[in-house]
């Protein structure tokens, strides 16, 4: 993990705290919801501005740039959510923004970017092709290139999700991983509190998991419902942070992801996009007394949701366990039976204050654990 980028740029928990102070004026904390049938808390970033956590990093990056006096137009490549976050942040701050999105980006995300007035360029079929085109435009026109995840300001902004989770006092937090910005930021915010940070990726869309194992070979990611994490090459800064801070990565099958998304909609009434349901899908394999999954986004095309609801038939949930307390057997009296009057008199002499607690049964005593006292 010895990379020149990672060595030159440092991101710390202090940067996450500074990001929280900047964002407080613009973004409200998102709610927590306990999904009882999953046995897991949900951090509902699908209810965030623009429907995704990505607006945190984009807004923090623009505010930090303004503090440094950098007023250049900002350009970013994105599968959709980072572009929407940048467009909304630039609109609020009155700054120009250009977004490059792959032609395969969901229509709802493209429309969301255009709604906030940012310039939209569609290029390539994957995020990595859009990323290369955005870098070329930035070099030609002098724009500021804002990476979707491999940027210290972006990572610090995403880490504010973790700061909001601190009050829950979780023992395990599950985070979807594409390029690693969200996972790195949450780990910076919570790792010092002893929280386990577990990443989630989709089968054959697991570039970060392979990199952390030492396999740096670039492979074309498979098509997946979780388009937001479909990244060919993860960030250099994020991989360095996750190498030190991440506890594990769970690889989820596509069928598991689809079923989890449908169950979220039908059982918990939470609309999540593919990447948004990924952490919860991984949570089924992770034990924890108080675990929390980040629902990272909810920008799902209506046609995709309709198809999933028609095609996916989730297994019926298991019946909840009933805790039945077995009745204690009646206490059989052995030896001479103590006269009730004598018992009361003896109790009064020994413990006057407790004498009123003695009952006067007429037969063998039957009780529960809570009722019996000694």
From TrEMBL:
One of the record's GO molecular function terms: L-serine ammonia-lyase activity
Cofactors demanded by this protein: pyridoxal 5'-phosphate
Keyword 4Fe-4S: no
SUPFAM superfamilies reported for this sequence: Tryptophan synthase beta subunit-like PLP-dependent enzymes
InterPro entries assigned: Ser/Thr_Dehydratase, TrpB-like_PALP, TrpB-like_PALP_sf
Top-tier EC class: lyase
Domain Tryptophan synthase beta chain-like PALP: 26-295
UniProt-listed GO biological process terms: isoleucine biosynthetic process; L-serine catabolic process; L-threonine catabolic process
Domain of life: Bacteria
Keywords associated with the record: Lyase, Pyridoxal phosphate
Gene3D superfamilies: 3.40.50.1100
Pfam families noted in UniProt: PALP
EC number, as in UniProt: 4.3.1.19
Family to which the UniProt record says this protein belongs: Belongs to the serine/threonine dehydratase family.
NCBIfam families: PRK08813.1
Protein name per the record: Threonine dehydratase
